[in-house]
Write a structure and sequence with these properties.
alpha+beta; 13-stranded mixed beta sheet; three-stranded mixed beta sheet; 355 residues; Jelly Rolls
Amino acid sequence: MEASDIKRNRLIDEAVEHIAALHEDRSGVAHARFAGWVRGSKPRVEAFLVATAQLRELAKLDAMAETVAACEPPANDDSVRSPFSVRRGVVGVLGALGTLTASILVLVLVWNGSGHREPAAEPFNVRHFDTPGIFDLGNGSKMQLQERSHARVRDIAGGNGSEVTLLAGEALFTGHHDEAHPLHVLAGRLVLAAVGTEFDVMQRDAESQVTVISGAVKVSLICRSQTSMPQSAAVTLTEHQLATVDNQDCATPVVVKTLGRDESIDSAAWTGQWRFFRGIPIGAAVKLFNDSNPSTVHIVVQDARLANRRIGGRFRVTDPEAFINVLTQVFGARADRSTTSDGSTVIYLRSAVGP
């Protein structure tokens, strides 16, 4: 796919997100965001027109016309006053086509006219991720992106959370949020809201899929077809549940399946964060945890008897505390902690009784 096509598709996805946000907006925040976004460039205006042509849900988008109409230039701005002065006339002529489309077409006139001014800064920051790696989303959340995957992250102004659109590929999300500022993830028809969870999302053209490894995720659906479809009720997934949705048929509901613990963890095996220990010595497992968390936690086994005992099971190597809990609760080990000058933690392990 050409770079220009990828950029165009991203803008269309952004337009659809604004449409969905405006439909649910009660505070006016989404309207302000849309006003800043749509005036950002002519390609955004064109992307919005394409999105509305695809959705054909003008009845849900009437509120957006008021937002666009409110984007009047300052009274002393002669450079763009002339195109905007014909707004009411254009809206009147195109009333049969819907006030929303007419208002957006006025913005097209502005961009085609001379003397265009750079718009004010948007009330949020947008970042694009096209390389594999682990990325900090803020507010305690992280996203690990698989190879050949693409995502867009929108940071809401005022620290009000993040909205992630997985455009293609697969990503693992982890983090803890308060309920007022959940992490929102969009993938195809899936809209996910998560508070304190770990979940894997896969986005393909034909279908989207989310697997909850721990915590809970609220799942709802959007429809981007040309025909308006009734929206299904939101579904809450708990740990070790998988939800799949057909992106090409808005009439199909989300399909939920309950998995075994190992099955749900296998969905994140590509990240390298989870390892299956098959009776390896605790000392060897400790080395793996130390190598995976060099700057945060260092584990020291203080006696040979504990180091030589064998352990099995699946563990997330980036979560040494869960590993320590198993050692203390199952093996009866004692864990003493200290903090170094650089802020990292050292955990000293030994058997509950002397070696």
